[in-house]
Amino acid sequence: MVHSAMRLNKKGMAVMETIIGIVLITFVFFILLGLWNKAAGRSEGAAAEELCHATNALRTGIVLKLPTTNIEAARVVPRGCKTLDIQKLPDATHLSQTSDKNKAAISHIADLSAKCWWMWLEGQAGKVVMDPRLFGSKFGSDKYNCFICYTFFAEKGISVTAGELQDGLRKQVYEIKDTSDQCSANGGFCKTSCDNPNAPEPTYTEEVESNICGKISPGTKCCVDDKDYSCVNRGGRCTFGDGYDIAFDGWTCPSKQKCYIKAENKFSYFDYIQRYNGGFGTWYFDIKETKEKEPYAIVFSEETKNFLDIVGWTESNEADSIIITSLSKVQGKCAIQEEVYS
Predict the structure, then answer these.
(1) If 0-12 CB within 10 Å is exposed, 13-18 middle and 19+ buried, where does residue 337 land?
(2) What confidence tens digit (pLDDT) does each residue in 73-84 have?
(3) DSSP character for 120?
(4) pTM score, two decimals?
(5) HSE (CB half, 13 Å, CA atoms) of 58?
């Protein structure tokens, strides 16, 4: 009897400890949540974009497991995302880059779409072992798992078709990938020794001072082909051929030579969504032509197969996507304020 009572007492104490733990965690969480939401609500522009990206990254990796139970709680990091109203585009920055207002508008839409994709982790969330979902289960939400990153109007006199938008996104360069170890201002590769006269071209036999290689691989040195020119040091070539077929004037070569890179290292805005850093996404253009005073939305969708029901498409696609569509089609269906606990 004494042993049975002791066992019951220990069991009761364990249950009580669990209850107290849950209450304390819940209490602290909702206090922090209120402070977090207040800060998120006040953030604007670049600060709001950074906050959204950071909280999404945290939410895919942080899971709370309650002690002495088999219950795995929902993700505990509050969302810090909210829809940003760009109002009219293009803005002064994009207009300063070209005299063609339509091209400036396309460039502005491209930048906003890329930023939306970045905020929602570039199609990488599915690679996170702990929790591959971005949206998860949400209180009072629908099935679409989509978020409106931006809303905008086209400036008066600007008219962009879906075809022109796609063409612009394919032509406009988002990034040239530097395949070096970036151990100096002009690139470079970390090697155990730069002194190898028999090394194939490019030789990378010139050592430059760097404190980066020691962090990447202890005992290595930063080696470059020529410290004065960046092209070869960043993974390009100063001669055409052998797969280096894309001319690029952003990196330097000796006089009268041009820099060439591999096609796989050139990322247009279209490529950025589809294949950047091993992520995978798709584009959907649900507009025929932009119209004056018509509000549009740039949307991230985690489960595009369900989202396509909104716009009446029958195509099946479960990849993450960026969708450009009329605001009226997604308003009330996709989230516009996701800083609340979900």
Answers:
(1) middle
(2) 444 555 678 899
(3) T
(4) 0.75
(5) 14
